[in-house]
Write a structure and sequence with these properties.
single chain; about 290 residues; 4-stranded parallel β-sheet; 10 helices; about 40% helix; flat
């Protein structure tokens, strides 16, 4: 069976940076001894296979409600999705060393949320409720006493109750992995509802590039396979797009998740989310070609 890879797939620069930060910390020595306790604040990336490999090397996952267990012997890696300033302050108080692996684009969104909040503006964010990046941006706005509104989709944008004080006093940002097309629709709806709304493009270009590459890939194949973590927002959006392009679309985390066969399909298109390691993509491709 023939496979064709998307022109853009696999780790984005932010994820690569976070992985490198973790591996550097795990391999470092301090005075001839390796640090005793190295944590990532929440899952470093949204890919279970990569997380299991890092766990085998000694990286532990620290949840926000476990910060009290930290001390001066600990290293805490802030994952690519970022974290709120309040949580960072709690870690500093415990004396732990912080390695900030926040994606630069996420960090920029956090700074913007804080800056606009300090000016008294409403910060409106499009994104997924509960996602780590969304919580980080929200936390940055609220940390300085700002007013924050989350809009998850077009329906919520249409239903948003606009306060009079939001006019000429609101800014729209987006989760970096949000759908560019969905963001355009939401921005249009909110711009009509909120006079003087300031709209910023905070979506990572890699998100749109992956989706455009997938559209082109779909023209050349009979079926599509999206490789990604089950909790990965950008992988899930790739899969939603894949389903709209081809009836035969599959979302897999590893080669073991592939179907037993692809029916009459002869050519399979392969793409992957931003947190999918190369070795997982290679294994999926090898399994397909062996069918």
């Amino acid at each position: 069976m023939k496979t064709i890879r998307s022109d853009i797939l696999g780790f984005c620069s932010g994820v690569s940076r976070a992985i490198k930060s973790a591996l550097d910390a795990l391999g470092a020595e301090d005075g001839g001894q390796k640090p005793k306790k190295i944590y990532s604040l929440g899952p470093l990336i949204h890919n279970q296979i990569a997380l299991e490999q890092l766990s085998q090397k000694g990286l532990k996952i620290l949840q926000e409600d476990q910060i009290d267990c930290l001390d001066g012997d600990c290293i805490v890696i802030v994952r690519a999705h970022g974290v709120s300033p309040l949580v960072l302050e709690k870690i500093r108080v415990k004396g732990a060393k912080i390695i900030d692996a926040t994606c630069p684009r996420v960090a920029l969104s956090q700074r913007r949320a804080a800056e606009f909040s300090q000016k008294g503006m409403f910060v409106i964010l499009t994104g997924d409720k509960g996602h780590a990046e969304v919580k980080a941006v929200e936390g940055s706005a609220l940390f300085v006493g700002g007013r924050f509104v989350l809009v998850q989709n077009v329906q919520e944008a249409e239903q948003l109750a606009v306060l009079p004080e939001m006019e000429n006093n609101s800014v729209l940002l987006s989760q970096t992995t949000f759908s560019p097309e969905e963001y355009k629709k939401i921005a249009l709806i909110l711009s009509e509802k909120i006079k003087g709304l300031k709209v910023l493009d905070t979506i990572c270009p890699a998100t749109g590039q992956r989706q455009k590459a997938l559209v082109e890939l779909a023209k050349k194949v009979d079926a599509l396979v999206v490789v990604g973590g089950k909790k990965s927002a950008n992988s899930e959006r790739l899969y939603e797009l894949a389903k709209s392009l081809k009836p035969a679309a599959y979302f897999v985390e590893s080669a073991e998740d592939l179907p037993k066969d692809f029916g009459t399909a002869k050519t399979i298109g392969l793409t992957a989310g931003a947190s999918s390691p190369d070795f997982v993509i290679d294994a999926v491709e090898a399994r397909i070609q062996a069918m």
